[in-house]
DNA sequence: GACATCACG
DNA sequence: GACGTACGTGATGTCC
């Protein structure tokens, strides 16, 4: 061949991006063993190239070939229409680093690799295809993208590599109803929801083809639109003419691009075996390296086995932290480049600074953004002028800040953009702050939750911990900025110059953690946990917290007064019995009275040298003296008053009249959540007196409260996990599970069961869930330790599967350093091999975690599905209390809501896990939480 | 800020 | 054989 492209030549154009995405989705998320680099798509891409090269024989073999890629960033079509491809989600995080590698792979195969800034791969292929055709040669476009079908004809064909199907002129007519030369006309009318090409509303491919065939061309059709009979269609074509014409320019490929290479440069070349094998070996593709080596008749290079530590040692931080490099953004002009960059990348780490910690009350002070490690800015918004003197803070806004509304308006487009990932550390907090500014932040990623999914049980997941542990960097502490105690100031009083490095650094750290954790989720096989149990829960909790629950202040206030009176009466009696006055609330003083002055028996000093005066001890003493019983009563009232009837009133939000708790998604190692400020997961219920506090939790007028709770969920899960047939059968038959246990253990028939025997069996059942010990059971049942041990022995004899589960679980924990829930949540058990009493703790925790954790996962799944399930109902989900969900709903929708929510909860494990034991949910309703429960 | 106590599942 | 112990949380008051 003389090198010129002409008759007898055959150009192959491979749609690189299509190859990449197909490869990515066809393969599991593989990572390179040595360092955890995601390489699944590269592997698939190489396999496809290899198969392609292998198949290049016979009459259709190419003389010239190139792989054409889309250049990242915007194209000229975005200048025509800013919404073009705007609803494309960003490329998956683990795919992005693989883009450049696919270029490397192409070159390693010695195939030309082309992309041009500002153009799509389609345009390059169009230009080359036209050149090939005009030169009298053939061209095959290896792609199934219908946008390329306009190029078919005159020697140009397409090849769907997956189906190994050639698409010629007839194939195009089959697909579009028109020939290749009219494909753009049809596309202009039909539009494309994937690429966000608007087209003519209401007209699809079928109708479009009909019209084009009737009128001959789009231009003719639009000029003669008045003639169309169907009134709606006619009006659309007249009204939307401009939009349709613009659509045509979007779908019309550019055949006349200026290229800095010619077809001749694309001549087929044999790969250099050394280069290709080196690349494949570097990627650590063992099978493919060997296969290619065999094919090329070469010795396969040796790929070293990865050392287990290698992945962990891989440097997490290439860019050093530089607090002076952060930018302070004070105007729209300065903010715009940041927004441009965010849009280009498709992600941003965000952090808000506020005047306090209560997200339902505080004001927004500033926002920090970070787009890549080291590149962060802070946007001060409502910092206050430094006080003229120390006594009076000024209310004047500090100078050089951009107006809050302007900044929010600019950021809103980014924060609500479905194609831009917003990354935060504890994003729920920031989401609430933004929600109060009418900005619905989505989608989000959360480094705190990633750490929880990855490292639950190892450490807490606060930013300081994570930064120090994983970035080896200590963040600027907030204390010196705000001060402590009475002289503490809020963040708006912090001088902007001090706020910038602090705030921007937080966003910087968050972005670095995100880049670090993201690939680890795959490596540690907790992507599903993160994606199905953590991330989707954030918007659900955000809404629950913002909705809050109505609490009646008067009810609480009246109770407080009643408690105070009773306490005063008890105090008088206590002083009388003690023979002196003292602080009843001081365990230390009480101990001295009981065991010193009154010389009651059983005085045991704890590690601090003080007598223990816990409820169990006082209960024992109650037989000896009247005083302990009075103290117990006093303590109960004191607890109810201080923690509940008093404190709860302070938590009623002035604006909403409701109480807004905050859930801590990473609060418990097992997967349970915690509730704080206030804790609404420990509102009294066990004592009659305490239970009345729930009467203050009420629905809005015309509504009722609904309580739905799982019945015996942990025991059911234990029956499933440990595979205890007798337990499963009892649940299936709806038998009282504690009575059944008692019957099995003590040989008492069910119809002769006494409450006391049942109570003991109940204690054992709970003990089993907690990792039973003779001592613990003895204390709980108040029986001698030997007797308790006897119970346990008998229980294990009767249910040997339970002991097996316990042994296996502890064994698993020792081997792997973690235990797992049925849904794959890992709970790490770093102390499992500790010596001394800690070993016992760790063992029991390891036994309990899969049970408690699985139950927690189940209700999380229910909560995540609940908003969609009840969307058609006027119901709101307000609270979660571990195995209970509380709803507020208008009276007329009560039955529907119960039926719907109950079904969601009972089926929450499906389809991920099929439980051998059915989950049962009990429902209650009422005019307050006491009635509903 | 540690500790003891006690509210919940 | 002794250690010490039921699992998971958060809020409050005392005391140093």
UniProtKB/TrEMBL annotation:
GO terms for biological process: DNA-templated DNA replication; double-strand break repair. Residues 326-522 form the 3'-5' exonuclease domain. Residues 690-893 form the DNA-directed DNA polymerase family A palm domain. GO terms for molecular function: 3'-5' exonuclease activity; 5'-3' exonuclease activity; DNA binding; DNA-directed DNA polymerase activity. SMART domains: 35EXOc, 53EXOc, HhH2, POLAc. Belongs to the DNA polymerase type-A family. In addition to polymerase activity, this DNA polymerase exhibits 3'-5' and 5'-3' exonuclease activity. This is DNA polymerase I. It comes from Parasedimentitalea huanghaiensis. The gene is polA.
């Amino acid at each position: 061949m003389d090198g010129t492209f002409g008759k007898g030549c055959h150009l192959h154009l491979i749609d690189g991006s299509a190859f990449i995405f197909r490869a990515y989705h066809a393969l599991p998320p593989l990572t390179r063993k040595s360092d955890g680099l995601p390489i699944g798509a590269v592997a698939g891409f190489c396999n496809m190239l290899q198969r392609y090269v292998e198949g290049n024989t016979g009459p259709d073999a190419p003389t010239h070939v190139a792989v054409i890629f889309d250049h990242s960033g915007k194209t000229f079509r975005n200048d025509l229409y800013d919404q073009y491809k705007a609803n494309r989600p960003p490329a998956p995080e683990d795919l992005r680093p693989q883009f450049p590698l696919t270029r490397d792979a192409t070159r390693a195969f010695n195939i030309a690799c082309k992309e041009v800034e500002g153009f799509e791969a389609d345009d390059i292929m169009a230009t080359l295809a036209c050149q090939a055709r005009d030169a009298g040669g053939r061209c095959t476009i290896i792609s199934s993208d219908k946008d390329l079908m306009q190029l078919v004809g005159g020697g140009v064909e397409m090849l769907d590599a997956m189906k190994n199907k050639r698409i010629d002129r007839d194939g195009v007519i089959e697909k579009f109803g028109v020939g290749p030369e009219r494909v753009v006309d049809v596309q202009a009318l039909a539009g494309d929801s994937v690429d966000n090409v608007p087209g003519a509303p209401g007209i699809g491919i079928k109708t479009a083809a009909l019209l084009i065939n009737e009128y001959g061309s789009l231009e003719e059709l639009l000029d003669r639109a008045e003639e169309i009979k169907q009134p709606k269609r006619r009006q659309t074509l007249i009204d939307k003419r401009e939009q349709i014409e613009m659509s045509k320019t979007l779908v019309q490929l550019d055949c006349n691009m200026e290229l800095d290479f010619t077809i001749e440069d694309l001549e087929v070349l044999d790969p250099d075996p050394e280069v290709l094998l080196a690349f494949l070996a570097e990627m650590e593709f063992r099978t493919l390296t060997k296969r290619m080596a065999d094919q090329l008749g070469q010795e396969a290079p040796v790929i070293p086995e990865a050392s287990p530590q290698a992945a962990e040692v891989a440097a997490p931080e290439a860019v050093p932290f530089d607090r002076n490099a952060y930018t302070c953004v004070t105007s729209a002009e300065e903010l715009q480049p940041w927004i441009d960059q965010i849009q280009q990348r498709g992600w941003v780490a965000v952090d808000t600074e506020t005047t306090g910690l209560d997200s339902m009350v505080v004001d927004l002070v500033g926002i920090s953004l970070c787009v890549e490690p080291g590149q962060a800015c802070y946007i001060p918004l409502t910092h206050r002028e430094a006080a003229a003197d120390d006594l009076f803070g000024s209310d004047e806004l500090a100078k050089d800040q951009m107006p809050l509304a302007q900044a929010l308006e600019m950021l809103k487009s980014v924060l609500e953009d479905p194609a831009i990932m917003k990354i935060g550390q504890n994003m729920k907090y920031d989401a609430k702050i933004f929600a109060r500014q009418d900005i619905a932040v989505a989608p989000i990623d959360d480094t705190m939750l990633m750490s929880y999914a990855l490292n639950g049980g190892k450490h807490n997941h606060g930013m300081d911990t994570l930064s120090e542990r994983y970035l080896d960097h200590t963040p600027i502490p907030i204390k010196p900025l705000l001060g402590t105690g009475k002289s503490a100031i809020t963040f708006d009083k912090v001088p902007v110059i001090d706020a910038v490095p602090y705030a921007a650094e937080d966003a910087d750290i968050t972005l670095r953690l995100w880049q670090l954790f993201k690939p680890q989720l795959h490596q540690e096989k907790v992507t599903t946990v993160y994606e199905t149990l953590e991330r989707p829960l954030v918007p659900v909790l955000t809404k629950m917290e913002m909705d809050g629950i109505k609490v009646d202040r008067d009810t609480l206030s009246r109770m407080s007064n009643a408690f105070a009176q009773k306490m005063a009466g008890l105090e008088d009696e206590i002083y009388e019995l003690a023979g002196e006055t003292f602080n009843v609330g001081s365990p230390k003083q009480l101990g001295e009275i009981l065991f010193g002055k009154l010389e009651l028996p059983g005085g045991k000093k704890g590690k601090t040298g003080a007598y223990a005066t816990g409820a169990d001890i006082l209960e024992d003493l109650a037989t000896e003296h009247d005083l302990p019983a009075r103290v117990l009563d006093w303590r109960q009232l004191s607890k109810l008053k201080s923690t509940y009837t008093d404190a709860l009133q302070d938590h009623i939000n002035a604006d909403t009249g409701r109480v807004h708790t905050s859930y801590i998604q990473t609060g418990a190692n097992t997967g349970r959540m915690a509730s704080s400020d206030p804790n609404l997961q420990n509102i009294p219920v066990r004592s009659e007196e305490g239970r009345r506090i729930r009467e203050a939790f009420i629905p809005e007028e015309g509504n009722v409260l609904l309580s739905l709770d799982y019945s015996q969920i942990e025991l059911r899960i234990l029956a499933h996990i440990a595979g205890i047939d007798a337990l499963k059968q009892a649940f299936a038959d709806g038998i009282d599970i504690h009575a059944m246990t008692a019957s099995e253990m003590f040989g008492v028939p069910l119809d002769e069961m006494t409450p006391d025997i049942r109570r003991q069996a109940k204690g054992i059942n709970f003990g089993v869930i907690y990792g039973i010990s003779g001592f613990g059971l003895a204390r709980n049942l108040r029986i001698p330790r030997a007797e308790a041990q006897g119970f346990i022995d008998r229980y294990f004899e009767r249910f040997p599967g339970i002991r097996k589960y316990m042994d296996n679980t502890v064994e698993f924990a020792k081997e792997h350093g973690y235990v797992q829930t049925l849904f794959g949540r890992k709970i790490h058990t770093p102390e499992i091999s500790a010596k001394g009493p800690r070993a016992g703790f760790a063992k029991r925790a390891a036994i309990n975690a899969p049970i408690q954790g699985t139950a927690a996962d189940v209700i999380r799944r229910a909560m995540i599905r609940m908003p969609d399930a009840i969307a058609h109902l006027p119901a709101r989900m307000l609270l979660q209390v571990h195995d209970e969900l509380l709803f507020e709903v208008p009276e007329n929708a009560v039955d529907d809501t119960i039926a719907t929510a109950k079904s969601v909860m009972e089926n929450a494990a499906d389809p991920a896990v099929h439980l051998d034991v059915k989950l049962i949910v009990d429902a209650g309703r009422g005019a307050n939480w006491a009635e509903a429960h």
